[in-house]
Amino acid sequence: MDFHRWIETISSWVWGWPFIILCLATGLYFSVRTRFFQVRYIGRMMKLLFRGKASGSGISSFQAFMLALSGRVGTGNIAGVATAIALGGPGAVFWMWMIAFLGASSAYVEATLGQIYKEKIDGIYRGGPAYYILRGLGSRWYAVAFAAVTILALGMLMPGVQANAISDAFRTAFSLDERISAGIVVFLLSLIIFGGVRRIARVAEIVTPFMAIGYVIVAAVILAINCQQIPAMFMLIVKSAFGIHPALSGVVGAAVSMGVKRGIFSNEAGQGTAPHAAAAAEVPHPSDQGFVQAFSVYVDTLLVCSATAFMILITGMYKVYDSAAAAHVIMDGAGLPAAMNEYGPVYTQMAVDLHIPGFGSGFVALALFFFAFTTIMSYYFQAETNVYFLFRGKRTSLCAINILRIWMLVVTYFTAINEMTLAWNMADIGVGLMAWFNLIAILLLQSVALRTFRDYESQLKAGIRQPTFNPAALNIKNAKEWEAAAPGHFLHRQG
């Protein structure tokens, strides 16, 4: 068995139906236990984005939101959505929405736990699954295993798909050699990751909203041009999702699988990445970041991913591949070459070009560059947090961090010039392994997260404008950063 087939086999094991069921069931469980807070508190989620300020130890809620969103909004929002439609049909979009809706509750739980068990290392708040596994579950081997898997996933397996998509889109739009694209990405990335957490947060704060808003505006223009076809597009998505569409009935299983797979890859709900950004925030109650991170799942999937899906589907620039029949079962886009078997950012580029000739390829390539670049930047921050977890207090920690920085630059360059299919399979293994570890951990720690949620909700119902957190009152142990502060410690920061 060659290396490519070996990687593909491992990916299929990690992403089997047990994992898909675990993702959906976990999201549904937490949604029910919180009485679907993701609907009831959506207004508060948006308000919390702009509350709180950065401190000497932590970043602001908005910076944490953008740092996490920069990780969520990446290649998956363009190339990932196109891949999901190509392999799972338009119905995959429905299941991406479903995993985002249910996954928002998982995102709340993991982000809240990240805040509860955060630590101050070298004067900066650090946290994530490894930290709450150690302190919440008291399992050192599990925490070390997650940290090691995360460093492997974010430092080696996942950057490639982001860098590869950039070089692929730049080649299509500007006929730019992959080595030149890779060199540009590596140079800019080195300027940021050697600047530390605060520089990463500042870049994310500026670049992420700019790129997301511009991309959604272009999608809105294309939808407006094709407004009469919107109802038919939604019907196509729903019919394909449940196998009602005659031509697509054979890919309904792939629709669910690809929708969940690409949905999690894009919004990262339950994967264990966002808690790293959530833990870095300065907030008066852990649930504040839980709400903010739940909202970031909506922004990623329901807004940005949907923008890509709508542009592709409403312009007909797609075709669906049935792996069982080993053939394309539908092809709506007359502009697509009949022999074109490749899928990825080119679908979106052709969709935009159809209505804005000469603009689509370049625009999507630049959007993809910003999306993917900030995601690699976020991957580094999360990997660095886990390196600190493994080497904290040791003289080797700075050396380990510098090795990680150089390693990520090397990996980013060489995977940018590799094969796209290999990059996706490697990234899927990284995402899946992290999610397996993290979903089990948050289910085991559910009582802590749900107690914190009920405490937050009860304070809101009592008319308290800004709830505060006292872990001792909730019988939550090992929340050292919170134990050191009085219940009203952060009130003066909130205005």
Fold topology:
Elements: H1 3-14, H2 17-33, H3 37-40, H4 42-48, H5 61-72, H6 79-88, H7 91-116, E1 119-121, E2 124-126, H8 129-137, H9 140-157, H10 159-174, H11 178-193, H12 197-225, H13 230-241, H14 252-267, H15 274-279, H16 286-315, E3 319-322, E4 327-331, H17 345-355, H18 360-391, H19 396-416, H20 420-444, H21 446-461, H22 480-483, H23 491-494
Antiparallel strand pairs: 1-2, 3-4
What does this structure look like?
The structure is a single chain. This protein is mainly α and 495 residues long. 71% of the residues lie in helices and 3% in strands. The protein has 23 helices and four strands. It has helices at residues 3-14, 17-33, 37-40, 42-48, 61-72, 79-88, 91-116, 129-137, 140-157, 159-174, 178-193, 197-225, 230-241, 252-267, 274-279, 286-315, 345-355, 360-391, 396-416, 420-444, 446-461, 480-483, 491-494, and strands at residues 119-121, 124-126, 319-322, 327-331. It has a two-stranded antiparallel sheet. Strands 3-4 form a two-stranded antiparallel ribbon. Helix 7 (91-116) packs antiparallel against helix 16 and helix 11 packs antiparallel against helix 19 (396-416). The longest helix has 32 residues, at 360-391. It is globular, with a radius of gyration of 22 Å.
Highlighted features:
495 residues; mainly alpha; two-stranded antiparallel sheet; 4 strands
Largest sheet: 2 strands, antiparallel
Report the principal-axis shape. Answer: globular
Strand runs, count: 4
Strand neighbour order, sheet with most strands: 1-2
How would you state the average pLDDT, rounded?
A: 83
Q: Beta-strand percentage?
A: under 5%
H-E string: HHHHHHHEEHHHHHHHHHEEHHHHHHH
Distance N terminus to C terminus?
A: 62 Å
Counting DSSP H or I runs of 4 or more residues, the number of helices is 23
Poorly predicted ranges (pLDDT <50, ≥5 residues)?
334-341, 486-495
Class based on secondary structure composition and strand pairing: mainly alpha
Using only C-alpha atoms, the radius of gyration works out to 22 Å
